[in-house]
Amino acid sequence: MRLYPTGPAGRAAAALAASLAVLVPLFAGAGAGAAVADDGRPDSDFTIEDPRITESSGLAASRVHPGVYWTHNDSDDGPYVFAVDSRTGKTLATITMRGVGEPRDVEGISLGPDGALYVADIGDNLDGSWSHVWIYRFPEPKELRDATVDAVQYDVKYADGPRNAEALMVHPKTGRVYIASKNEDGGGLYEGPAKLTTGAVNTFRRVGEVPWVTDGAFSPDGKRLVLRSYFSAREYAFEDGRLGEDRPVAAPFQRQAESVTYTADGAALMFGSEGARSGVVRVEVEGGGSGDGGREQGKSSGSAGGEAGDQGGGEADEGRGGVGLGAAIVVGAGVLWLALRRKRGQG
């Protein structure tokens, strides 16, 4: 999704993002390349190589196929889901959903404890133009090959009226589905019914307040929920269906930060972005899984080139990348300040 919110905050975000989208590759790209598979190991930084995937808006770590991530395009693509190998960045399977309507704005994907993939057609760029949205569900394929599968379609509405949303999370223990709405002034966490049903509308009710959210995911044990935005991420304790204490996560800077998921072992988070050959960046999480035998918690693995906001370490290439990114942000902020000052002068 490329639409930023309306109003001064939205115009500011759009101007800053546009400036940084140009500047970050120039400054940070000189020191390192795009995200690539890290020595062929699964669940490391990688680049989505498939030229068909230009608007990756969601990520889900496979539980059947280690190192494989499910993703999808945003709008105007069709009923397709892709299995991408984190070792190579190559697409291993393209799944076509059969039995669903024409997707409008697919924004998220999540795996449930039933072994099914839930695909969220929940985007609403006009914040209330759709009276209802949809969730599609189909079993995660046991074999990775191109296939057409029968999917179940669920009609969804919100108890307090239509809204835009980009994050769908299925709890890995209870199977209950949650949606986080997206709003520049803060959104809501919405809880679905205990079991989604066909033939009737499934009403989601607001159970918590959240910041501006572009994606989210539960940890494999269901005790944590991460929510990301364009410029930051937070991890919340989650118990009895409600948000608890939260802490910041060292999310990488990405030009169109749209997706996040935990690795299958819960040791790290994988942050994704839209765009052709977009990078997916691994960031260790505190107390998550068995870790990676040497990476610092809260740090990216550092092979993502100009997309990682905090590379850590002291190697030459990493240092150049960090300095370049800092310079890009400073220059981008200056461009934004000048643009806003000119706008005020004209007004």
Biggest sheet overview = 8 strands, mixed
Shape: globular
Q: Averaging pLDDT over every residue, what do you get? A: 81
Number of strands: 21
| Main sheet strand line-up | 6-7-8-10-14-13-12-11
- In terms of structural class, how would the helical and strand content be classed? alpha+beta
Helix content: 10-25%
Give the radius of gyration: 19 Å
Give a description of the structure.
The protein is of the alpha+beta class and 347 residues long. The protein contains two helices and 21 strands. Helix 1 packs antiparallel against helix 2 (316-346). The chain is globular and about 50 Å long. Mean pLDDT is 81; it is low at 1-11, 17-34, 290-297 and 302-347.
Distinctive features:
eight-stranded mixed sheet; disordered N terminus; five-stranded mixed sheet; 347 residues; single chain; disordered C terminus; alpha+beta
Helix and strand arrangement:
Layout: H1 7-28, E1 46-47, E2 58-61, E3 68-72, E4 80-85, E5 91-98, E6 108-111, E7 116-121, E8 133-139, E9 147-150, E10 152-158, E11 165-170, E12 177-181, E13 187-191, E14 202-210, E15 215-218, E16 224-228, E17 233-239, E18 242-249, E19 257-262, E20 268-273, E21 279-284, H2 316-346
Parallel strand pairs: 5-9, 10-14
Antiparallel strand pairs: 1-21, 2-3, 3-4, 4-5, 6-7, 7-8, 8-10, 11-12, 12-13, 13-14, 15-16, 16-17, 17-18, 19-20, 20-21
